Every structure is written in structure tokens, then in C-alpha cells.
Recover the amino acids of this structure.
């Protein structure tokens, strides 16, 4: 049985509320993580990263100026294997980061 227009509106509103609550929770987690890094002396500003200061977690440069990867759909199979291996190493060294390398 198809939904009525009213049911569609209610579902859309619920979906928007769910998305908003998820985004708010993510923002709170990110802010808590940033505060933790500041308290532990691990927070690295964009300026420090651009100046060449290494990551406090893995001691590798945050901005390595090695260029950027093209979109993964444009990588050859060999390039994709290298990309995936580098991504796996990053996730191993930064399990709670939530970012990408």
C-alpha cells in the first residue's frame, strides 16, 4: 500500500531529525577528541602542520607535499594497491582518528 502524502512528510521530518542528531553527536565527539589532544599536548594546529611539524602520534609529517592522489576510480590496479596499503598503515597508526591519510 503506497504512503499518503502526510506519511511521506512525517517520514521526511523524522529522517531530517535523525540526520541532524547524528551530525550533532559527531560534532560533540570531534570536539571531545580535540580537547583531549589539547590536554595531552598532542594537538597539532594547521599552521604547525604546514610548517613541517610531525604528527605527535606517528612522527610522520602531516603535510608531506608528495602530491595528491587522483580520485580512486582513476587509479590503476597497481596504484590502488599502493593507495590501499598506505591507507591501512595510516589506520593502524591512527585507529581513533576518523580521518584519512
Amino acid at each position: 500500500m503506497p504512503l499518503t502524502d502526510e506519511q511521506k512528510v512525517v517520514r521526511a521530518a523524522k529522517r531530517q531529525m535523525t540526520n541532524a542528531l547524528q551530525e550533532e553527536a559527531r560534532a560533540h565527539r570531534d570536539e571531545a577528541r580535540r580537547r583531549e589532544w589539547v590536554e595531552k599536548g598532542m594537538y597539532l594546529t594547521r599552521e604547525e602542520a604546514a610548517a613541517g611539524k610531525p604528527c605527535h602520534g606517528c612522527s610522520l609529517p602531516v603535510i608531506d607535499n608528495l602530491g595528491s592522489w587522483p580520485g580512486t576510480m582513476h587509479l590503476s590496479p597497481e596504484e590502488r594497491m599502493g593507495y590501499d596499503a598506505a591507507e591501512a598503515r595510516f589506520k593502524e597508526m591512527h585507529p581513533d582518528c576518523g580521518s584519512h591519510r
The chain is about 55% helix and 0% strand. The helical segments are 5-39, 46-50, 77-93. The chain has two domains: 1-43, 53-95.
